[in-house]
Amino acid sequence: MDAGLAAVLGALTGSVATIGAALATGWAQREGARITARSEHRRQRLEPRTAIYKEFVSHANTIQGIASRFIVDPEAIDLDAINEDVLRGVTSAAHGIEKAWADVALAGPESVATCAGEIYAHSIRMTIAVNEVARRNSGEIPLNPGRELATRVAVSDSAHRLWMKVDDFAPLARQALDDDGSLS
Q1: Which listed residue, 26, 147, 151, 167, has the most CB atoms within 10 A of its CB?
Q2: Global pTM?
């Protein structure tokens, strides 16, 4: 092989190697930028979610505390103690859940939003049951002795279901906050 051909082949080899290195570097930079962008996106979603979940848990704990007085044998519930003040407390706590639920539903993910929605639904059921008892106790609606056991069961059951769902929320929220996206 003559020296001229060797020089041309050497230059060509050097050019191909340089182009290959440039392509590999460009790909690595693009992947690095994609990973950085994804990480920043996850961080920006994490911060508001944390605040939203914290607000929801605060309201959920309030209504869970109210519900705890009704988580007994339905026969043991003192229906006469359910008055307008108790109803106001339940209604206020349910409104807090409603407002916080809307934020959780938007922040997601689906599993957390579904659990929050179930808590909201149980808070409504408990509010309806307590409202019926309070209205009966105030004389607004007539006393129906045949309905008393059903009312006791409705109050107890809705409070128990609410309590259980509130206990489910924190682990789901924690799991959502810990998700770094490496599995998706």
Answers
A1: 151
A2: 0.73
